[in-house]
Amino acid sequence: MLRLILAAFLLLATAAALAQPGPQILVATGKEVHIQTKSAGTVICAGGQPTTQGPPCSPGTKRILIISRVNELEYQDVTGSAAAMLRGKNNTVAHCNLDENYFGHCWGTFLWEIPEMGGVWEGTWSASADQAKRITINSAMGHGYGGKLEGMQLKFDGVNPGGLPHAIFIARIQGM
Fold it and tell me: Does a structural domain hold residue 51?
């Protein structure tokens, strides 16, 4: 009798689990646009001097370090099932380690407010950059907090192949 009750319980538990919707995956693509630099942060020009116009360092610089630059990003022409979850301003903090040709690695954090969803995305990002040619390849991962974003996970990949005023991105959002 106990086996029959246990078997019935397992059958009901399995049926209930199968009836629950699985993790939801949503996607979106669009343009990532730099709106403004809120803080230039600190620029260290090893072997050179910071400049006020043009490239951030004088000729002869061997290594460029950018520390705590704060940028505001916006997303335009966003389409796909996750589009509404990306409508808002994204504030990033950037750190970069670049060579004399402005090639290297950048990384940082982001806080992306989504008023329509009543929440924020918070996470980290990393990029390979050739800033002289305006080429970047970046990836980000974040988690949703508050409102309809609570418990969601964001994965984001972007690329600027050079010469565009924006990056092209694809985002994937998965429900927990």
Answer: no
3-state secondary structure of 10: helix
The structure tokens 């090639």 sit at 103
Q: Domain holding 122: CATH number?
A: 2.40.350
* Residue 76 and residue 166 in contact, taking contact as beta carbons nearer than 8 Å: yes
* Helices first, then strands: H and E counts in the chain: 1, 9
Q: From CA 112, how far away is CA 82, in angstroms rounded? A: 14
Q: 64: closest CA among 80, 83, 51?
A: 51
d(CA 39, CA 152): 29
Model pLDDT for residues 164-173, shown as the tens digit of each residue: 889 999 999 9
Number of independent structural domains in the chain:
1
- Per residue in 70-103, pLDDT (tens digit) is 999 999 999 999 999 999 999 999 999 999 999 9
Q: Residue 63 domain-assigned?
A: no
Task: Put residue 20 in one of left, alpha, beta given phi > 0 → left and psi -120 to 50 → alpha.
Answer: beta
